[in-house]
Amino acid sequence: RHLEIPGEGADIFASSSPRLDLVLRGVRRRRGSAPSRPRLPITPDILRALKRHWNGRAARFEVVMMWAACCVGFFGFLRAGEFTVPSLQAYDPAVHLSTRDVSVDSRESPSAVRVRIKQSKTDPFRRGTDVFLGRTGNDLCPVAALLAYMARR
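User: That's the sequence. What structure does it adopt?
Assistant: Structure tokens below.
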């Protein structure tokens, strides 16, 4: 195939062959577009440091909400986009997490919470999935954090 000399905005990988397009896409995926910084995992120690930092502000609604989000994300092994919204204007209850997506196993003494994730990066058909979080009985408890948030809401 003849490649044009790249001009401004020209794509040297432009092709009219579907097979060549697939090969080039694989090369791009393998090579990557630019070096990226590795994302480090959140650890229990980091969560505890956040909790200590927010400790004096625990009465504020935003702190209770952030703590619940951190615990749910951590213990549910969630991607940030599965339990957060990019902006208030972008919120869509058909897509994003809402209070209706959270349920407990018992009203009197809940030991587990079910969180319905409506869509995710790894769910191409948007079927959704349920994530179950159990009570840990220690300072890092997703059930306690989520119930505290729901009580304040």
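Confidence is low (pLDDT under 50) at residues 1-6.
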